[in-house]
Sequence to fold (234 residues):
Amino acid sequence: MPRTDFDKDLRLLQDELLQLGGMVEKAIERAVDALKRRDLRAAEEVVEDDDIIDQKRFDLEERCIDLIATQQPLAGDLRILITTLHMSVELERIGDYAEGIAKICILMGNEPPLKPLIDIPRMAEKANDMLRRSLDAFVNRDVIAANVVCSDDDEVDALYDQVYRELLTYMMADPGAIRRATYLLWVAHDLERIADRTTNIAERVIYMVTGKLSDADREAVTSGIVTHNPTRTD
Fold:
């Protein structure tokens, strides 16, 4: 394949990855909005649309593997393909967390909310902003921006700790609130994991540009683990 054709394939692959990222961002927004408004139909649509995200990820994987097998790329080109492959997996898993939030909304049904949702939407906004900036860093090959995304994960962790402590207080004060508080804890946990996986994406961008793995990534590779964060299956 001529170099110009290969470059075109890489650009198309990048466009497809950005489309997947946009679908995942929208899924997070819709899931949290459905939770805020207690819109069960909107939550069901998020669950249904997750199949589209899954298929998009599989299609991207197939194209990456095909280009690696047929073009035998070296150095920077190979890193781009490997990064795209990893990012597609991370994005699909983030979509699963959005689906999980929508399922929790459905489980909650029409029950009155335990408390006004303030910090959970803030977590969602921050996590989605991190995701958007990590994708921009990928497009722009911007290591500095990717590093900032990694450092911003601490803010989401702090919000999660705050939500966790507050909900525990509700549980201790009223045992009857335990189930509803647990639902919100699950939502907060999903959002915290979204931020973690977005950090994985930013770290992969750094690897793509510099050729250097972070300490956590290097440990994952040497131990045979694809990603250094545990994967939920719900």
About this structure: The CA atoms of residues 1 and 71 lie 7 Å apart. The chain has one domain: 3-222. Residues 218-234 have pLDDT under 50 and may be disordered.
